[in-house]
Each structure stands twice: as structure tokens, then as C-alpha cells.
Amino acid sequence: MSEDSLITEELRSKIGKESTPKVYEIEKGMIRRFVLAIDDPNPLWQDEGYAGKSRYGGIIAPPTFVLAIGFDELQRQVLESIPYGGILHGSTELECYQPVRAGDIISVTTKITNIRERQDRRVGRRVFVVIDVTYKNQRQELVAKCQQMIIGHRVEGKRYG
């Protein structure tokens, strides 16, 4: 690792270590606010009568809802470990296994699984951090898995770390 590498020892030491689970109690209001924010008219998310007659037997959250409930933990783990001037969202891959319902208690864990650095001729060095996020319900059933990539880079004229 070169002297001017963006990959700090602190960050490297977190590879493969799962965070302590962060727990979220899902309420109808949370689901309603999320649905309003994404402007999704699907009646499974908001119409009790329609959702009650569906195979789910009631309102469920949109699949992407889990990304919102785990985002604060993802930010905490990554941002406190990355001494860069700029952070970009690189990608998100989401696999959903169970619907999320009001009353569920969702545990979210994160784990940095890969870090690599690359030289970019326009902006200099960039670091790519891959984070796996796991969502389980109160019965310890896997609800969803997500893989996110965060891209960090130095902003010229600023020093971090």
C-alpha cells in the first residue's frame, strides 16, 4: 500500500467484520411516509381493503423500504471510517425474500466485504468500498440482502484523516 493511499488501516481492519445489529420497529406511519416520498400508488402499500384481500392479507412495505431503514447504520459505518472529501453512491443491488409489514421488528447488520483503490486521470485516486447489508425480521427470517458500493475520493486542497 503506497504512502498516499486512500485506504486507511482503520478501514482495512473493518473488512469482514459484521456490525452489531441495529433494530427498527416498523410502524404503519413509517410505511405511509415512505410511500408518499417515493410517490408509488400501488394499493398493496396503502389501501387496507385491497391489501387485505391480497395474498399478503394486509398492507406491506414496498421492497425498497428496507434501504431507508438501514441507511443510517450504513452511513455511520462507512463515513466514520473514510477520510475523504467526497463520497459518491456507486451502486445498489437488492434481493428481497419476505415482505415487511407494520409490527415487524427488523434487525440490520452491515459488513464491509471489499475495498479497492484505483487511479482516475481526471480526479486522482478513488476508493471503492463494498458493503453487504442483511435485514432479518423478529423470527430471524431473512427479509432482504443488499450490496452497496460507496466511492470515496479526496477533494483537492483539503486534508482528511
Describe the structure.
The chain has a domain of 107 residues: Thiol Ester Dehydrase, Chain A (Roll). 24% of the residues lie in helices and 35% in strands. It starts with 8 loop residues before the first helix and ends in an 8-residue tail after the last strand. With 161 residues, the protein is α+β, with helices and mostly antiparallel strands. The protein contains six helices and five strands; from the N terminus they run αβαααααββββ. The mean pLDDT is 86. Strand 4 and strand 5 form a beta hairpin.
List the topology elements:
Layout: H1 9-13, E1 22-25, H2 28-38, H3 43-46, H4 48-52, H5 65-69, H6 71-79, E2 86-96, E3 105-120, E4 124-136, E5 142-153
Antiparallel strand pairs: 1-3, 2-5, 3-4, 4-5
